[in-house]
Structure prediction request, 276 residues.
Amino acid sequence: MLPYAPSELILNPDGSVYHLGLRGEDIPELIFTVGDPERVSSVSKHFEQVYWTKNRREFKMVRGSYKGNEVLVLSTGMGTDNIDIVVNELDAAVNIDPEKRTNRATHRKLRIIRIGTSGAVHPEIPVGSHLWSAGALAFDALLPFYQHDFEQIAVPHAPLQPYVVPGSSNVPQWEGLYHGITATLPGFYGPQGRNIRIGSTFAKALDGLHDVQVGAHTVTNFEMETSGIYALAHLLGHEAHSFSALLANRATGDFHPDPSVPVESLIQKVLEWAVA
Prediction:
């Protein structure tokens, strides 16, 4: 393979990837991602040791150890546009030689685990619940820019047809954990059916979204990152998981009175599961 050109793979003078500022040796196999930079400390406070902290743009990163395991937690910001940067640069840092600019002879497989928040669309899922995404419906605009063979399906009244992105075969299990298909949307207001001062074209689709069947699961929730993480991890040969604390239920109109409680509970459970 010819070397990746400097305009294709942009590296910093020290050989680190452009946005994250990380080199391969900075990145362990186990990585936790959160959308909100403020949530990084909610995860890292459980680490036994903290080795370093870095801040670059919206990307806050803490490297440490948890129960004897090397771990990294980083904030991605919101949306699959940021996920495009994060997952590609994590992969490039560990699987491309920065001096030769060619693929390394040995592929490193990362385990990328999102700990986030989400809104339920199924009326029977109470707020405060935890959910693992068995797959995702990509309503975002990321995948049309990549070569892939993900299937598109029709969703009634939706302004576009989403791609079906599979989840991991390593299925987590703990009491009270829901499994379902997560719809990933490219925004918080109109794309999630909210009508503020501009009418949403997704509002009617949202009403019946929980009836959409994908394999053995129906659509249970929506957010803004999961499909990007699952799709890019799948295409690049990594394992990915997305866990959500469901803070709202759009079908019932409920919102959790203290979001920090289910989020903190989810962090603890995911950390324990990840190293078990």
Observations:
- DSSP finds five helices and 15 strands in the chain.
- The mean pLDDT is 96.
